[in-house]
Amino acid sequence: MSADGCWVPALTRLTRDDAVDPDTGEIVRRFDRDAVPYHTNDGEYAESPGFLMVMVQARTAYTGERIVFSTSLKSGKNKAVPRNDATIAVDRILELVEKFPGFAAGLRVVVYDMMLSVADFDRLLDAGLVPVSKVPLTTKGTFAVENLGEETFTLKDGSKATRIVWAVNGTACLTFVDGSGKDFYMPLQQTQVKKQHRKKRPQISTHWTIPDNPLVPASLVGATARVRHTRTNSERIAGKSRSRALRIFPESDHRFDGLFGLREDSESANSDYKSRLWNRRCRTMGHESVEFNNIGYQIHVLITALVAYHNRTGADMTEWFGLHELPTKHKRRLALAA
Amino acid sequence: MSERPKLFEGLQPVAVEDLAAVVDDDSTAERLDGPNPSNKRRRRRPRRGRKGDGGRATPKKAAPKRVLGEKFRPSDRQWLQLVACFRPLLMLGLQFEELIDPPSRRRLRGGRPRKYSTLDVLLFEVAGWKFGSYAWVEDNFADPDVWNELRDAVAAAYPNDPRMRLSKTPMNRSRHYRFRRRYLCEHLLQTAHDIIDAAAVTAGSQMGILEPASVLCRTRILARWCPLTAAGSRR
Question: Quick check: A84 and A115 in contact, CB under 8 A?
Fold first, then answer.
C-alpha cells in the first residue's frame, strides 16, 4: 500500500486579492474561494492556488489492477485538517483499519516519502502496519543516530550477552573498536520481522544477527537479539520514540529498494489523475465539487481494476455489474494452414 | 545533483567519526543553472535522411513489439455501459436520492421537480474521467441511441430492482452543475466516501491485494519476493 499527496491547481489562478476590487468589494474576476496557496517564498505565491489531494492506493502486479482506497482533500474550507499530507494519509489509513479489521491483517507495508514524521510512523506501527520510509537527516545535516539501550543477545552456544544497540540511519548497530583504537558502527543483519498481538495493540519487533566481520569477536558472531519497534506505554507517555533513527526495513536492507520503489506507483497514480484534467487543473470550483470529482476518479479506477481483473482471471462479476455481460478481449484467431 | 550516500552497503562497518560529518546531500538544493542545466539541454534531433537532403540519415528505430492481450481497452459505448451498471454507483445514487429527497418530505416539496436522477449525475461524473471532458460526455449522452442503450443496459442488468433506472431524458452539463451547486454538502460527500471506500476494500480483498499471505505481496519494481507473512518473515 502506498500513499502520496499531490497539489492540484484550482481552475483559475487568481486569488481573492486579485479578483476582488479593494475599493468597492466587487468581484471583478472569477476565483475559487476554497483554493489556498500551497506555500510562499518571501511573501510571494510559489504555486498557484489550489487543493492538496491525498490518495491511498494499492495494486497487484498486473496491468490496470490498481485500487484507490481513499481520497482526501485539503483546502481553505477545512482548515482543521493538518497541513502535512502524510498526516492526512495516515488519518485516512487508520480510519480504514478501524472500519475494516482485515485491512491490517498480516504484515501490511505502507510506503511513504520523507514527509512521514516520527509521530505518524508510530501511529502506523501502533495500528499493526509496517511503514517504509527513509530516515531524515538531522537538523545539522548528519545521519540520525540514536541509542536504543541495552539488548540481550543469544549467542550460538546458547549463553546470553548484553550489549548497547544503536540505531544509525535506520539500521541497528553495535560499536566495536579496531586495533588502532578507532570506534566503528557495525551494522546488524535483519533476519526476521515479527508481529505479535498483545492485549491492546499489536507489537512489531525485528530479529537482528551479528554478522561475521574481522571487527567482531568470534564469540559474538551469529548472536541474535530481538529489537522492539513499537513504543511501550512509558515511552508513549514520555514522548520518546525509537522511530527517529530505527526502521523495520532500513536503507541498508536488500529489500528496501524493492519496497520503497512502490512509492513510484503513487507518483504514477497522481500523474494519471492530473493527466485526465484539462490543463492539469481542477475541472470545477469549490471544495465540495472538487471532492465530488475525486470520488468520481476513485470509482473510475475501481471499474478499470475490476474489468482488468475479470479479463485476467475470468472471475464472476455479478456482484459488481449485475447481469450485465462484461466485454472481453477478442483473441486473435489462428490462421488456417494453407 | 548528488543523492546522499548509502550507509552500510554490503554490511560494511562505518567509523563513528565519519558520521559526524555533514552529509553532502544537495538533491533538494536550489539550482543555479536554471531549469535546464546547460550540459543537459535538450539537443535538436537530427533529421532523418531524405533524398537530396544531404543530411545524415538516422536509422528509424523499430517500434517495440506489442504484447497482445496485455491491456484491454473496451470501446466507449462498452465503457459507458460498464459505468452505468456498476452496482456501488447505483447504490450510491439511491443513497443520494434518499438524502436529498427523503420520502417524508416529498409532499412538502415546492417548485419545479428535478427531471434527472442522482444516478444520472454519478454516471455523468465518472464518464467525465474516462473521456476527459464533460462536453464530450454531454454530446454523446444527447444521442438518443447512446442514452437509450445505457438505459436498456441498466434495466437488463437489474431487472428485479425498478429503483435502479436512468432517467428518460439524458444528463447534461447544466443539470450536473445545478446538482453540484444545490445539493453537494459534507454529509453527502461523507456518505459517498463511506460507500466507495467500502467497495474499494471489498474489491481489494477479492483481487487478492488485501490477502495477508498473498503471493501478490511481491514488489513490482524489481519483481522480487518479499516473504511477508503474519508470523514474520525469514529470509
Answer: yes
Query: Whose CA is closest to A112, among A7, A260, A298?
Result: A260
Q: Quick one: CA dihedral A115, A120, A122, A127, positive or negative?
A: negative
CB A230 within 8 A of CB A204: yes
Are B75 and B131 a contacting pair, CB within 8 Å?
no
CB atoms A300 and B130 under 8 Å: yes
Taking alpha carbons only, the member of A202, A206, A219, A215 closest to residue A252 is A206
Q: Quote the DSSP letter at residue A21.
A: -
List pLDDT tens digits, range B61-75: 665 554 444 567 889
Among A68, A141, A332, select the one facing B22 at the smallest CB separation: A141
* Interface pTM, i.e. ipTM: 0.89
The reported pTM is: 0.84
CB pairs under 8 A between A and B: 258
Mutate to test the interface with A, among B3, B4, B8 (most CBs of A within 10 A): B8
Q: A69–B230: do the CB atoms touch at under 8 Å?
A: no
The DSSP H or E segment spanning A202 is strand A202-209
C-alpha cell at A321: 455489474
Helices within chain A (DSSP H only): 16-19, 85-99, 118-126, 233-238, 256-260, 263-275, 287-313, 318-321
| Mutate which: A94, A143, A263, vs B, most B CBs within 10 A | A143
CB A290 within 8 A of CB A75: yes
Report which of A190, A194, A155, A154 is spatially closest to residue A170, judged by C-alpha positions.
A190
Among chain A residues, CA nearest to B81: A324
> Tell me, what's the pLDDT at A78?
78
Q: Is B227 on the interface with A (CB under 8 A)?
A: no
- Interface contact B6-A326, CB threshold 8 A: no
Cβ-based contacts of A175 with chain B (< 8 Å): 16
User: Which H/E stretch holds residue B173?
Assistant: helix B173-183
Q: A296 and B75 in contact by Cβ < 8 A?
A: no
Interface test with B, best of A60, A264, A326 (most B CBs within 10 A): A60
- Residues of chain B with pLDDT below 70 are 1-3, 24-71, 106-109, 212-235
Task: Specify whether the CB–CB gap between B145 and B179 falls below 8 A.
Answer: no
How far apart are alpha carbons B185 and B178 in whole angstroms?
13
Interface check B205 vs A, CB under 8 A: yes
Residue B191's H or E segment, with its range, is: helix B186-207
DSSP per-residue codes, A117-163: -HHHHHHHHHTTEEEE-PPPPPTTSS--EEEEEEEEEEPTTS-EEEE
Which candidate from B23, B87, B132 shows the least CB-CB separation from A322? B87
